[in-house]
Amino acid sequence: MGLSKAEGGLGFRELERLVWRVGTGQNIKVWGDRWIPTLVSYCIQSPVAILNSDARVNELIDGSRGIWKEKLVKEVLNEGEAMIVSNLPISKSGLPDKQIWGYTKDGFFSVKSAYHLEVSRKRREKGERSKGHSFDWKKLWSLNDESIAHALWSCRGSMDVWADKKSPLQKWPSNEVQFYELWDRLLNMVAKEDLELVAVVMRGVWFRRNAFIFEKKFTGPGTIVEQAAISLENFQISQSVKNGGMGSNGGGRRGCRWKAPVGECIKVNWDAGMSKKYGRVGIGVVVRDGKGEMLVSLCCSKEGCCSPVLCAELNFENVIFEGDALVVVKAVNKNMKGVLKNRKRWKVQHVFRECNQVAHLLVKTSFSFIEEQIWMECCPPEIQSVVTKEYLYTADS
Q: Would 119 be classed as within a structural domain?
């Protein structure tokens, strides 16, 4: 979001005006950085003198005493700036320098302050245009004048996303509004769970816009909503894992988590699910070792289970297959005894869904692809947070 709109961001860098709060001064340049809170530009205007042009603010500080070197400050800066700097508080306990929002008293960003900053910026621009310059500034600025609200809400591309049948705002009119007005309406009229999905969909709309502009790639409206729902679920699951809350279906499943295999054994978790929309069966497979480290992850949307084939191709000999469909597990153990007999160190067992989350999420991801997808020693980025949480839990066990 901090990038300019021309670079694919939401344009907040053009507004952000972050200012350095002096701690040790080691990270702040005397000239060029924004660290003087009472100046309009927040930058030192005095010409470079005595110190070199890349000098850091800590050269103006007596670190052992935690005070400014006032004599040096007066030699380096003009009288007005020297007085301002000498009165700036600095850390006496060695706290690091910190960037803060320069338009609120507490240094924290607020939408209200950003709005007022943008209003004043537009007033300044209007004043510059009224000075009678022959250059057509308005025409130039209009080349990059798409508002955030238009890009995320009211342009034709985003309207198709919000009109999708799975969208929580399917029947909302996509009128041209300021973004803060739109968000205020959403806060007052949309349930919390839908509002969370709306936020993730907006993120997807923005990423789609960037992919189309910079990479000439286009993603269908329905896919944006589906991927947003998957990403949100992944985030919620990862938070649940973090808080130890996975497993709320009875005492036996409370706190149930994926467990790494013992010794040199390999564990393969699989899951499958049917998509009525696509008329396909999605399959997710994840292979991890005794340390909980990822070996392979796979997802596809077709008929048949591919995890035994995958393990055979990779020459895994000591394997535990885990799935959360008890009926399937029983059927495999009953009808595939011949196959398992030839693989004496292969074992198929049932686990609860809470212990099979990564495979379950891979199934949902599979419907975003037409062809089989395989990741060696990694997984799709949208489920990485869940994989990491389970790995950290294994490492702590």
A: no
Question: Which range of residues forms the domain containing residue 315?
Answer: 266-396
Do 324 and 390 lie in one domain? The reply is yes
Per-residue pLDDT tens for 110-145?
Answer: 556 566 666 666 665 555 554 554 444 444 344 444
- Report the pLDDT value the prediction gives residue 338, as an integer from 0 to 100: 62
- For the stretch 260-279, pLDDT in tens is 888 788 899 988 887 766 66
pLDDT at 199 over 70: yes
Same domain flag for 284 and 365: yes
Q: Are residues 232 and 311 in the same domain?
A: no
Residues 98 and 177 in one domain: no
Q: Exposed, middle or buried, 275 (CB in 10 Å: 0-12/13-18/19+)?
A: middle
As a three-state string, the secondary structure of the chain is CCCCHHHCCCCCHHHHCEEEECCCCCCCECCCCCCCCCCCCCCCCCCCCCCCCCCEHHHHEECCCCEECHHHHHHHCCHHHHHHHHCCCCCCCCCCCEEEECCCCCCCCCHHHHHHHHHHHHHHHHHHHCCCCCCCHHHHHHHHCCCHHHHHHHCHHHHHHHCCCCCCCCCCCCCCCCHHHHHHHHHHHCCHHHHHHHHHHHHHHHHHHHHHHHHCCCCCHHHHHHHHHHHHHHHHHHHHHHCCCCCCCCCCCCCCCCCCCCCCCEEEEEEEEEECCCCEEEEEEEEECCCCCEEEEEEEECCCCCHHHHHHHCCCCCEEEEECCHHHHHHHHHHCHHHHHHCCCEEEEECCHHHCHHHHHHHHHHCCCCCCEEEECCCCHHHHHHHHHHHHHHHHC
Q: Is residue 108 part of a domain?
A: no
Are 278 and 218 contained in the same domain? no
Instruction: Examine residue 380 and state whether it is found in any structural domain, yes or no.
Output: yes
pTM greater than 0.70 (yes/no): no
Structural domain count of the chain: 3
